[in-house]
Write a structure and sequence with these properties.
This protein is an alpha+beta fold. The chain has one domain: Hypothetical upf0131 protein ytfp (Roll), CATH 3.10.490. Helix content is about 20%, strand content about 40%. The chain contains four helices and eight strands, in the order βαββαββββααβ. It is globular, with a radius of gyration of 14 Å. The two termini are about 20 Å apart.
């Protein structure tokens, strides 16, 4: 099972159920160090924080396809999870990181300047930013 921090259309049960056959929602969550902006599609950029929720699914390939990973629209990156995540059975799921999708601001038509790390592919720059700025996700009580 993959654990994903979602912050846009994938927070909606109806949208996810059209896309995935197997999934469950975990708790609400906050990602610190990134903020949501709107372009052609919503994405994350360096900033204070963004609210979202946890999505658990074995169908990460379908999410990659939906987010246009192979076409360079979004990249999937790992972000540290700073707490243990409760599951629907009342116990906890032990994961150290969650996946999330971050879109390339130039591809999505984001008008404000966005500064990631200095060099490399878009995914490498986002990953370097996440690593060097202590970006992390924390679950919240619903």
């Amino acid at each position: 099972m993959d654990v994903v921090f979602v912050y846009g259309t994938l927070t909606n049960f109806a949208n996810v159920s059209k896309l995935l056959e197997e999934f469950s929602f975990g708790p609400s969550a906050v990602c610190y160090g990134l903020t949501r902006v709107k372009g052609r599609y919503p994405t994350l950029i360096p900033g204070e924080q963004v609210a979202g929720r946890i999505l658990v699914t074995p169908e990460i390939g379908r999410l990659d396809e939906y987010e246009g990973v192979d076409h360079g629209l979004y990249c999937r990156v790992s972000i540290p999870l700073s707490d243990r995540m409760p599951n629907t059975a009342g116990s906890t799921i032990s994961v150290d990181a969650v996946e999330t999708y971050i879109g390339d601001p130039t591809t999505l038509g984001i008008s404000q300047p966005v500064e990631w790390s200095e060099s490399g592919s878009f995914k490498q720059r986002v990953t370097a930013y996440v690593d060097s700025n202590q970006v992390h996700v924390t679950t919240t009580c619903d």
